[in-house]
Amino acid sequence: MLSLANVRVVDLSIGVEPGVASEPWPATIERFDHRAGAEQLAGNLREQGYDVRAEDFPDGIGLAWEEVTAITHTGTHLDAPWHYGPESGGERARTIDEVPLEWCCGDAVVLDVTHLEPGDEIAPEDVDAALADLDVDLSPGDIVLLRTGADALWGTPEYLTEFPGMGADATRQLVERGARVIGTDAYGFDKPFAEMGRRYEETGDADELWPAHFAGREREYCQIEKMANLDALPRDRKVPLVTAPVKIEGASAGWVRPVALLEGDGADGEGGRKAASGRGVDA
């Protein structure tokens, strides 16, 4: 039995970073240091009728904080069914605050699709081959993670374009087999924007536009985008995973910090530390 007394925590997230080249709509962060905090807190108390000045705080400093402006799809996040459309399976789609937490906690399997090229569409046969390579059976409620290797590009513009994405059929296949949450270490769950646009212009087929997302209009599921460090997880067994989203009323997504729980000293998996990006695997 897994015990927290003998567990290694693996951080599978990237951060919310201002101005990063890997976000089309990067966050902005306004920082208030401790002296600014003292001024703000003292001013708040004076507004309530108390004679407090910034210099009255110990050492003249108060509390630091930040004001973040970001879309809910910045950084590692969980998309709710509402993101894909107003209905799923004929019912009103759930927003992120309505997603059951039970969906976000479970055993995870890592499917290796690093052999695919950027812009490729992940098909059902790719999923079957990856599952056969693992020699594990999916059970209802299992979380499926797609390792593309794209997280190595985090911090660069290429992160936005150099990855394969899920197709509608592969997405349906996993959802029909009981997956409620599917994650990827790439920027997006579908193919890169430019590749979808190219295919649409070439064929005139609207099904080329966000097909994996829109599969969620038929049966509800959630997806995690912009994960990291999937190469640090073992692939010979299922891994306990917790990936509960921030609860934002009526939102299409919520920021999340997925963590995998590995037992004992032999839990290093295939990967190690992300030297290029500076992200470690231990929280």
TrEMBL record:
It comes from the Archaea. One of its GO terms (molecular function) is hydrolase activity. Gene3D superfamilies: Putative cyclase (3.50.30.50). Pfam families: Cyclase. Its EC number is 3.5.-.-. Coiled coil: none annotated. The keyword Hydrolase applies. The keyword Signal does not apply. Keywords: Hydrolase. It is an enzyme of class 3 (hydrolase). This is Cyclase family protein. It comes from Halomarina halobia.
